[in-house]
Amino acid sequence: MCRFYAITLLFLLQACCASPPAAEQKTAQSQGIPEAASALITEEDLAKSLLIENQTANWDQSGIFLAQSRVVNNSSAPLAVQIRTIFKNQEGMTMEVSPWKQFTLQPKQELAYGAPSINRFSSRFLLEIRRPAKNKP
Question: How confident is the model over 76-103, as pLDDT tens digits?
Fold first, then answer.
């Protein structure tokens, strides 16, 4: 009888302590966090020219929170933009901010943009997009 309990206990410990399969990724939505991503475009005419799609947030096996978005230039002219990611916790407090990155999008071009956060409390992100200016860092 003791052997049965020992085997059962060993089985339960293995099941509880086992790591998830390598292919499994935790997403913000799978963790019960609604609306894990959003975008802020600072100028109205720029907002009319851009489309933000496929915003996803994933934690990888090493604990990196990766924010990804697809930015599309819907206009018929090239657009120069700067993009950064603001990482937030579940309550909406800013945890980390990525540096501005500058891109020139040709007409109808799609850009796959991603930024990582090592802050373990990051669970949401805000994509901020603006036009570059000479006096902006």
Answer: 999 999 999 999 999 999 999 999 999 9
Rounded to whole angstroms, the Cα distance separating 58 from 52 reads 18
Helices (H) and strands (E) in the chain, counts: 2, 9
Residues 108, 64 contacting (CB under 8 angstroms): no
The closest alpha carbon to 19, from 51, 54, 49, 61, belongs to 61
Q: For residue 135, what pLDDT is reported? A: 56
d(CA 109, CA 69): 14
The residue ranges of DSSP E strands in 3-135, in sequence order, are: 26-27, 37-41, 50-59, 65-73, 79-88, 94-97, 101-105, 110-117, 124-130
